[in-house]
Amino acid sequence: MRLAPDDCWSRLRSAEHGALCTLGTRDTIDAVPVCYAVVSGRIVTPVDRIKPKTTTDLGRLRNLDRNGTATLLCDEWNGSDWSQLWWVRARLARRTSGDDTEDSFNAYERALRKKYVQYRDTEFVELVVFDVVSLIGWAAAQAEDTPPVS
User: Fold this and answer.
1) Contacts of 32 (CB under 8 A, 6+ apart)
2) Cα–Cα 20 to 30 A to 105, which of 73, 99, 112, 131?
């Protein structure tokens, strides 16, 4: 069943993580799991030093430098109860560093620290901020308090 926009936003906010898909070299889709937060209708995902990596010059950043569009896919999978299945796909456009104020960046950092305990006492290398261009979602069963979408 197709999800209403408000339900898509709600599920996007509550999901613990998602897969960020960017366009790689040779027109391949590069998908990586990411932490993210929703702030004022925007998606923010950090580059951090907490998780092991050989560099903070990540492929997804290079991909976004070439093409600023991306997709974030979040889902819930319950192998024993398929009535709980759902997914939300957000089509994204990367914001440039001059698009946001210092207050906005402070709000992005606060949201990430509130959502992920691992970020409470760390500095971010970079915050990648996206505008949500479109949202679509599906669920196997409708939430009890959500009216059907026509």
Assistant:
1) 19, 20, 59, 60
2) 73
What pLDDT score does 143 carry? 58
Q: Token pair for residue 5? A: 């926009």
Homologous superfamily of domain range 5-139: Electron Transport, Fmn-binding Protein; Chain A (2.30.110.10)
Cα–Cα separations (whole angstroms), residue 139 to 23, 60, 75, 130: 27, 29, 9, 24
pLDDT at 150: 45
Q: What are phi and psi of 73, to 5 degrees?
A: -115, 125
Query: In the structure encoding, which two tokens stand for residue 48, read together?
Result: 């951090």
Token pair 């613990």: residue: 16
Residue 70: DSSP 8-state:
E
CA distance 122 to 92: 26
Mean pLDDT rounded to a whole number for the chain: 91
Identify any residues that bridge with 94 across adjacent strands, giving them in sequence order.
130
